[in-house]
Design goal:
ten-stranded mixed β-sheet, alpha+beta, 2 domains, D-Maltodextrin-Binding Protein, domain 2, 12 strands, 12 helices
């Protein structure tokens, strides 16, 4: 049965740089801003501008193609220079936490909502000037997170390597023919891998109450068996997870739709599979780091990512799904076109550490 995509949200209190390569892995790389200061920055929903100039420092796990499409356009439209610090989500959160009281970054750009909600104390309240123009799923989360796209967990299958093995969902990953041929990221360090983990629990738990799936025996039995299929091995970066399937090192990768779509568009011998048991599609957002030194520029960045210009770029030039009302995207199935599962954001945020502890125990058992 297909479900309308809904999500239970918790009540949470309240520059022209060169795009860095190799996101989602390795040592964070910072680009230097160039261009002139004293520029105008668009800060209103209607496109009005206020002269604020300056630079915004962007922490991001986003893939290179997304950054290349959006960041130069942001600078061209607003005049605000930018610095990019690219790394895995986990590395960026370690950095933000180490910098509490003296933040070096201004915004987190590209964090999945479950991770953002679990780290709400690191962000300061802000609602974008464009919030009213967004679809329901694109509305502000918790008073501090500005969604700009939605991200679905998918499987990426190498069509040259899969042979006669049928892969239509999660259960198919346990076939003996796929042992040692599955790429999965590290949920402790990658937001997309964590989203895959909670998607699997939600879809494979078999419980009538969603929150019960995250602790159910069937769900964790499946995760344990999947990790045995990988030999207890995890891939260090989300980009490499997809690359492993694209280059044939793996037959199938557990990844996310935008990254998978990029490999399809690049002509790699791969296809996207939306797991028949249910797909979780979560908002990805911009959050302003508490105490941001470039607050006006950070707010302008969040506003612009929900602007019609940015949302059309996401639709036309990236693999992402835009969230602004009236902006559509060709080439991807509508959310009504596949089975979805309704994640319990509040539960996942409150029990993130417990979920990861259970995962690490399962991984250690599989590796041993």
């Amino acid at each position: 049965m297909k479900h309308r995509w809904l999500i239970a949200l918790p009540a949470v209190a309240l520059l022209a740089g060169t795009v860095a390569c190799g996101t989602n892995g390795g040592t964070p790389a910072t680009t230097s801003p160039t261009g002139s200061a004293g520029a105008t920055a668009s800060t209103s929903a209607t496109g009005g501008s206020t002269k604020i100039g300056g630079t915004v420092v962007v922490y991001t796990p986003n893939e290179q193609t997304m950054l290349e499409a959006l960041m130069p356009a942001f600078k061209a439209t607003t005049g605000i220079n930018y610095q990019l610090v690219t790394a895995t989500t986990g590395e960026l959160y370690t950095r933000i936490k180490n910098e509490v009281g003296n933040p070096q970054g201004d915004v987190m750009f590209g964090d999945i909502s479950t991770t953002a909600v679990a780290n709400a104390d690191l962000y300061q309240p802000y609602v974008s000037a464009n919030d009213a123009a967004m679809e329901t799923v694109g509305k502000n989360i918790g008073g501090y997170s500005t969604p700009y796209q939605i991200q679905c967990s998918v499987l990426l299958v190498n069509t040259d390597k899969v042979g006669s093995t049928s892969i239509t969902g999660y259960a198919d990953l346990l076939q003996p023919a796929l042992k040692g041929k599955i790429a999965f990221g590290d949920p402790t360090n990658s937001s997309s891998a964590f989203a895959q983990l909670t998607n699997m629990l939600a879809a494979m738990g078999g419980q009538s109450a969603m929150d019960a799936n995250y602790t159910s025996t069937p769900a964790w039995d499946f995760v344990g068996k999947l990790l045995q299929q990988t030999g207890g091995q995890v891939v260090g970066s989300s980009n490499q997870v997809g690359q492993n399937a694209a280059n044939g090192e793996s037959v199938v990768a557990l990844t996310y739709e935008p990254l998978a779509t990029n490999f399809v568009k690049a002509g790699s011998p791969v296809k996207i599979v939306y797991p028949k048991e249910g797909v979780s599609c979560l908002p990805t957002g911009v959050e302003i780091i508490k105490g941001a030194k470039n607050l006006a520029q950070a707010k302008a960045f969040a506003d612009w990512m929900q602007s019609e210009e940015a949302q059309k770029i996401i639709a036309d030039k990236t693999a992402g799904r835009p969230l602004r009302t009236g902006v559509s995207k060709e080439g991807v199935p509508p959310l009504s076109g596949f089975t979805t599962v309704q994640e319990d954001l509040a539960y996942v945020a409150a029990h993130r550490d417990a979920i990861l502890a259970s995962y690490q125990a399962a991984l250690a058992k599989a590796a041993g």
